[in-house]
Amino acid sequence: MSVAGYEDYYNGDYFMVCNETAASPFGKVFLPTLYSLVFIVGFAGNSLVLCVLMKHWNQANLTDISLFNLALSDLLFVLTLPFYAHYAVAGEWPFGDFMCRITSLFHRTGFFSSIFFMIFMTLDRYVVIMHALTVARYRTLRTGVIVSIVVWLLSFTVSLPSLIFTQVTNSSYGTGCRYMPDNDIWEDYNLFAMNILGLVLPLLIMIACYARIIPRLVNMRSTKRHRVIRLIICIVLAFFLFWTPYNIYLFLFFLNDKGKLGGEVCEVEEHLKLTGTVTETFAYTHCCLNPVIYAFIGEKFIKRVLNLLKSWFPSLRSVLARDLSENSRRKSSVMSQSSEVTSTFIS
């Protein structure tokens, strides 16, 4: 569920008219388990991306800055999951009002900043491929810093209602951390933000940009073009497959809350609880894929990761050195102009 819905699900405030169902015990096992796995994998992967990029910060370009901020966004997001995992098990919020608000704010800000940086990376790739000569002088570190500041401020602004309206509450279900807006406008804002800004907008931008990019790549004389095209398809499909089910659930939850869904009330609510639990955790695993999709698939980045691991684990030096030499022999000694353009995706 969205941040605004965690406490209502765990405490049952949205489902008071019905008796407890199997969905709640299932959620108390399923949610903490998946949250813990997402936290471990996401923390390790995104931390490694940050370490590699910081180690080579003097060689950073606009793409590296985008990857750095994307990893930072996902890291901010996964750091909130242990709090919600504990919340799912205990059924109460023991961390106080300040942590209730801050955790909610970090969760939302991490989510939206990740989405917005993916949008920026898509647009950046589009202008590089379609207008390479025109935009080359604008793709500077200064541009990257300015864009990063703007994206973080935008993400914070979009997430601000979570800080303002989320608070600790006491009820017969125990102490909760609830989103308590002043009116229905801010209640409906969550649906708009998650569905429009979190899914529809980025998906439309990805489809529009990559639909123009792929034909251009097909016509390029580059040995990397097929790999790049596969990468593009993976980016769009992964985003769509992981987030669409959860956003459909949010829309159905909104309709049910407004009394627009037919059927027996308790039966619908039971299915919604189970659906929300599964689709939410499935969607959150996307932050674990970002390092793989955007960073680890690049040849230059893989080399940097291997070199960093060699410095951390000396016993692996011989194995990693052999892998690096084999990879170098496979690389072509001549790169065409089109290959340099496609390296925007995979280097």
TrEMBL record:
Primary location recorded for the protein, binned into one broad class: membrane
SUPFAM superfamilies: Family A G protein-coupled receptor-like
Species of origin: Takifugu bimaculatus
PANTHER family reported in the protein's UniProt record: C-C CHEMOKINE RECEPTOR TYPE 5, CELL ADHESION MOLECULE
Residues in G-protein coupled receptors family 1 profile domain copies: 45-294
Keywords from the UniProt entry: Cell membrane, G-protein coupled receptor, Membrane, Receptor, Transducer, Transmembrane, Transmembrane helix
A Pfam family annotated for this UniProt entry: 7tm_1
Membrane topology value: Multi-pass membrane protein
Gene Ontology molecular function terms on file: C-C chemokine binding; C-C chemokine receptor activity
Similarity section: Belongs to the G-protein coupled receptor 1 family.
Keyword Transmembrane helix: yes
A cellular-component GO term for this protein: external side of plasma membrane
Protein name: G-protein coupled receptors family 1 profile domain-containing protein
Subcellular location: Cell membrane
TM region(s), chain numbering: 34-53, 65-85, 105-123, 144-169, 189-211, 231-255
GO biological process, one term: calcium-mediated signaling
